[in-house]
Amino acid sequence: MLEQLQNQLIVSCQPITGGPMDSPSIVAAMASAAIAGGASAVRIEGIRNVEAVRTVTDRPIIGIVKVDLDSSPVRITPHSQDIRDLISAGADIIAFDATDRTRPEPVEALLHTVQSLGAYSMADCSCLSDGKSAHALGADILASTLSGYTSGSVPATPDLALVRQLATLDKFIIAEGRYNSPESAAAALTAGADAVVVGTAITRTEVVTGWFREAIHR
Predict the structure, then answer these.
(1) Rounded CA gap, 26 and 87, in Å?
(2) I need a labelling partner for 43 at 20 to 30 A (CA). Which of 49, 67, 73, 143 fits?
């Protein structure tokens, strides 16, 4: 399956929670439109959304569940049960937070669950250390997803330096996080990524509208 994603675009179809686009039928339509435009895979949050997208495409689905926990800052697929539910819903690849933070279940346990159910594992990393740890545990994919999101202010631009670092680990590398222009997505592949995920710039209408509004006001 990873060969299908080599040098390809993946679109993250995650509308703003509670926004007007936040329904499984609309997420499925977003995914269909992204695939019609040339996306080779989609990244989908939520069990019902994965189920809806699975009915409209046989392309690879990267599935995640986002959960706000009182006891941990980890939000992306923190529990093994999330993984079981995502795979049952039709996800082919399971992405999860692979950072070294307080968490309800260790990364090793999450990886074991993915592997035992025959899916591909995608470690969402914030730094090279996360990538090395996930690599040692046997993750199939290392991604730069969480760079800039674990502390302090979120940068405006993607972390190409992390992509270059992860590319030295001899794994399938996905660049993700703030790739908001075609040029930056292409730069990710030049930096060593095997594929790139674009989300906000394609599927978050409210945010992109705000970019244009702010530019006009300036």
Answers:
(1) 21
(2) 73
Q: For position 78, which CATH number holds?
A: 3.20.20.70
**Which one, of 203, 206, 208, lies nearest residue 32 by Cα?**
203
pLDDT band at residue 65 using 50, 70 and 90 as cut-offs: very high
Place of tokens 């703003």: 16
pLDDT tens readout for residues 161-212? 999 999 999 999 999 999 999 999 999 999 999 999 999 999 999 999 999 9
pTM of the predicted structure, to 2 decimals: 0.98
Residues 151, 148: Cα–Cα separation, whole Å: 7
Query: How many domains does the chain divide into?
Result: 1
Query: Are 101 and 132 within 8 A, CB to CB?
Result: no
Phi then psi for residue 205, to 5 deg, are -55, -40
In whole angstroms, what is the distance from residue 206 CA to residue 16 CA?
8
